[in-house]
Design goal:
Length: 394
């Protein structure tokens, strides 16, 4: 049960109910199997999400989307992710992921070319930023896009891209023409079948089962110059704040689902002849779960309300993501504990939430990196994380 409706409109409550029904009837019964078998979402289910209008709900109506504010998209993502993050993932990608970079910074022609197929569920666009030597230090990326007449020629390696090897298209962050620093970073759309692009074996991650991940090798991959959506890490980072709220929502869904299940379980499970909720230490643990989940929701809703149809502030996005990521790890851990041995069983699904919670805390920047951003934004100062240049011996 959620404690409050947070002033959601009638339409938003209806939207939540529609998403919750779909999640309950279609995705919840599949979730355990998809996790166990590491199955990708079946194409028919992606089509269903498109037909329901969920894939493009926050994208502009002129490109086939629903033109809804960010909060509406997050409401749907949460309901789907409470049942299965495999089902929620395409909705997360389309409404808070790389498609928003195209929406915010693409030309009208680029939007017309790339957005409608995403809304129709024909194409998934994944985001590829991280590299073997550039994780938290994303601006150290070295994959290069060299301009050659009417094309860019891309060379380098990417890692950890969620969707790699499965998505039809990638928004690839590259160093344009070798220009150093954050200003040299741009984002280009690369189709999965581009000549010279190959994928490594699928990663076997602790969680995120059913969401593809693999190394991506670019060997002189050529794309039209018009596939460059934007250059400049500052703009890309603005759009990434939207993705950080999508990530926050995935974490909130984990916390809320664990809380809902635990609240029911502790009232039903008896030991020593009493429901275990009557033990005070169980009450304290449950109260901590409620506190954590409610606080995460408030931080998310504040940031999303401020964003309207656009991007949240970087400070609010980092606060919400950092808190929700850590909340989901803690709350899922407590939920497992309060379920005793059943919490440790795959069948009960709580360990799945816990494994996924760790993944969301890594994707989109770790809590430590969010803390660096929080202090920087809060104080209005930037703190270089780079080692000072070494003095040469005289
Ligand atoms: C499930 C999952 C999904 C992902 N999805 C994507 C995706 O779709 N696209 C994509 O491009 N990438 C993706 N990533 C990559 C993710 O963004 C990186 O893993 C993350 O940014 C951390 O980088 P790293 O793994 O190289 O760790 P490192 O940067 O090497 O960090 C290691 C440790 O050092 C700490 N650290 C590093 N620098 C600092 C600092 N300045 N101050 C304090 N602590 C610091 C980190 O917090 C961390 O604890 C995904 C990762 C995972 C696990």
């Amino acid at each position: 049960m959620q404690a409050d409706e947070f002033g959601l409109s009638g339409e938003q409550l209806l939207l939540r109910e529609t998403a919750a029904r779909l999640a309950r009837d279609v995705y919840a019964p599949q979730a355990l199997e998809w996790d166990r078998d590491r199955s990708f979402l079946p194409a028919a289910e992606r089509q269903r999400l498109a037909e329901t209008g969920f894939l493009g709900m926050c994208l502009p109506a002129e490109y086939g989307g629903g033109g809804a504010p960010l909060l509406d998209g997050l409401i749907v993502i949460e309901e789907l992710a409470k049942a299965s993050q495999v089902a929620a993932f395409p909705v997360f990608e389309a409404n808070t992921g790389p498609a928003r970079v195209i929406e915010l910074f693409g030309s009208p022609q680029q939007k017309q070319r790339f957005l409608p197929p995403i809304v129709r569920g024909e194409v998934t666009l994944a985001v590829s930023i991280s590299e073997p030597e550039a994780g938290s230090a994303a601006t150290d990326l070295t994959l290069t896009a060299r301009r050659d007449a009417a094309e860019f020629v891309i060379t380098g390696t990417k890692r950890w891209c969620s969707g790699a090897g499965h998505a039809e298209q990638y928004l690839v962050y590259a160093r344009i023409d070798g220009e150093p620093g954050s200003r040299g970073i741009g984002a280009l759309v690369v189709p999965a079948d581009a000549a010279g692009l190959t994928f490594g074996p699928q990663e076997r991650l602790m969680g995120f089962h059913g969401i593809a991940s693999a190394d991506m090798y670019f060997d002189e991959v050529r794309v039209p110059a018009d596939n460059l959506i934007v250059q400049g890490f500052k703009q890309l980072f603005t759009a990434f704040s939207i993705e950080r709220l999508g990530n926050t929502t995935m974490s909130l869904a984990i916390g809320q689902a664990c809380l809902d299940r635990t609240a029911a379980y502790v009232q039903q499970r008896t030991q020593f002849g009493r429901p275990i909720v009557e033990f005070q230490s169980v009450q304290m643990a449950l109260a901590d779960m409620v506190l954590q989940v409610e606080a995460a929701r408030l931080l998310l809703y504040r940031a999303a309300s401020g964003a309207g149809h656009g991007a949240p502030t970087s400070l609010e996005a980092s606060i919400a993501k950092c808190f929700a990521n850590e909340m989901a790890k803690k709350v899922s851990d407590t939920a497992m504990g309060l379920h005793g041995g059943y919490g440790y069983s795959e069948e009960y699904g709580l360990e799945r939430y816990h494994r996924d919670a760790h993944g969301w805390a890594l994707g989109g920047g770790t809590p430590s990196i969010q803390r660096v951003r929080i202090v920087s934004e809060y104080l209005g100062r930037s703190f270089s994380q780079r080692a000072p240049a070494r003095q040469r011996p005289a």
